Amino acid sequence: MTFEGKYYNGQSSKGMPAQIALLPHGLQIDYWAGEAYGSVHWEVAGIHQSEFNDVTTLLRYGKFPQQSISVVDPGFREALQQQYRGAAFLKSGYSSVLGMGCAGIGALALGLLGLLVAFVVWGIPALADRVAMHFPESYERQLGEQLYTKMLQGYQVNDEKTAALNAYLNELDTNLDYPITAAVVKSDDVNAFAVPGGYVVVYEGILDKMEHHEELAALMGHELAHIQNRHSLRAMARSLSYYMLASVLFGDVSGVAAVLVDNASALRNLEYSRSLELEADREGLELLRRNELNEQGVILLMERLQSGSESEMLAFVSTHPNTGDRIKVLNDLIGEKKQSIKENPELERYWKQLKR
């Protein structure tokens, strides 16, 4: 049985008129290219399904560059089914799905829905996290400045204590890749948070709870670790990933930054995973060691916060959970080894200004 169609040799996009014969072991294709005549044989095992519809059949053959044929004849598909019954290239994926029945199609649909839900719940935030990890530092600093400015609009800044806190930070060896800018805001809340790009906001309420400047150094080390390791930026990106995705989908790439800035207030309520909190704790402890300050400062800070009243602790505990577990880990890290402690009159002086 012979059918008329077009033959494509895989090297030219131009189809050549062809006669296609169905032989027992494959297709015999005789084609004309201008005045030239050619003939190829396709073994059944090498034929690949391309497309079947009510009128046109497209088949491919071999490896790259693949040959192909196109036959506009509804009888061609029926002839193929009769001649090569059970051949792999005749098994339509669409037909396979229909053959699954209602229960099978329902299960497939549920599986696809599950994959979609999994991508929305875990995939999009994870993608936003990876994007945040690769932000250029200059862009992060610019974004952080906008977030910091926006954030402070809702607070009254204590200028005298802000100057003292920045002087205190300048005296510390912070080992940070970013220039540091900090502000002390007038609030009784026991809280502090990091802003991407090297910015920190500290509430007067948490300063009032402290009795030793090593506690402040531990707190600053903790918050600066969130900045250095981009915990704040990543947490914001994850929590706002759906808004950011919408900005990208609608072609407003600059809207990504706008989404973050418009949600600057989310910074004070960011929650970090247990592993990120412990990482920040370890680096806070390392800051004390690097500056030869009493390592117990980090333990005193944690214990003081843990012993506060429920109203005092509400803000800090909501964003820094598992305080008891973290104290145990920090005590294990400190161990019994005696550490050299060096007096630092400058840090003491700035600390006194903060406690006025």
TrEMBL record:
Its cofactor is Zn(2+). Binds 1 zinc ion per subunit. InterPro entries: Mito/Outer_Membr_Metalloprot, Peptidase_M48. The chain crosses the membrane at residues 97-124, 240-261. Residues 162-332 form the Peptidase M48 domain. Belongs to the peptidase M48 family. The keyword Glycoprotein does not apply. GO terms for cellular component: membrane. This is Peptidase M48-like protein. Keywords: Hydrolase, Membrane, Metal-binding, Metalloprotease, Protease, Transmembrane, Transmembrane helix, Zinc. One of its GO terms (biological process) is proteolysis involved in protein catabolic process. GO terms for molecular function: metal ion binding; metalloendopeptidase activity.
